[in-house]
Amino acid sequence: MINSINKFAHTPNFKDALSDVLGLIRFTGGYIEVHTSGSMSDISLNTSEPSLLIIKSGTFYFRCEDYSPDPIELSEGDILLTFSSEFSISYPHKLIESEWLRGTFQYDQRLSKRLLYCLPKVIVIRRVTYGVMDWLETASQFALNEIETNEPGSTIMISRIMELLLIRVLRLWALEPNIKANWLSGAADPAIGYVLGAMHSKPEKAWTVCELANLAGLSRSVFASRFVALVGEPPFRYLIGLRLDKAAELLQQTKRTIFQVAEDTGYASEAAFSRAFKQRFGSSPSYWRQQ
């Protein structure tokens, strides 16, 4: 696994997998709210949206029962991303004023179950682990300024800043040495990331192992084993899932017929496409489109 954020796979001429997946599920930033220990007591939140917590000052305890019975201590500079719907924040030192930001996101719930399966319910990025993290601090300060000034366009500015913060957090998490193999860790590898970019750019193409291995600059055997080790599944199983996810997006976002969607995603017949689609999503393409 690579150990530098700057080496996150760059895929010229192709899409990159992370950008494509976030686009597929229409991941967009929501709003940001500011919390201080002096303005409220301990709080509990019940939300349907993912939350990004940015600790500006002080110390807090984050509790999420469906993640761990033990609280997570957060200090200045720490960032936490959670997909859990219920969590609480407590202040161990109520006499010392502390401040944290909570930003939210929206995304397509149906597709996200397949594409975000690799993410844990809670991701913590420690300041002590990655240093000062100037980029993250600068972005969060920009968001704060937009909240305070409330100038025209501030809503869209905050949304875009939240998207930038999310991408940065996911990049950092993908470089963790002990995470389970998944498409995001594969995207962080220069060779496999380049291949994933090619597959995401042309999912309908009848890729061969030889072509993909050549793109990666590896032998076929080394490429196949490396792909599985990083992504967690063989290249063609990943490609099949990608095609069907693309098809689901086309069914939602366009008026193309089911046969046309099947052709667009590399299927020779509508029947074969419909069988594969139902196996992945639990419903026929036509029923999916109506939902």
From TrEMBL:
Origin superkingdom: Bacteria
Pfam families in the cross-refs: Cupin_6, HTH_18
Record keywords, A-Z: DNA-binding, Transcription, Transcription regulation
Signal peptide: none
Single GO term (MF): sequence-specific DNA binding
InterPro entries: AraC_lig, AraC_XylS_family_regulators, Homeodomain-like_sf, HTH_AraC, HTH_AraC-typ_CS, Tscrpt_reg_AraC-type_HTH
Domain HTH araC/xylS-type, residue spans: 193-291
PANTHER family: ARAC FAMILY TRANSCRIPTIONAL REGULATOR, HTH-TYPE TRANSCRIPTIONAL ACTIVATOR RHAS-RELATED
Protein name: HTH-type transcriptional regulator CdhR
Species the sequence originates in: Acinetobacter stercoris
Name of the coding gene: cdhR_2
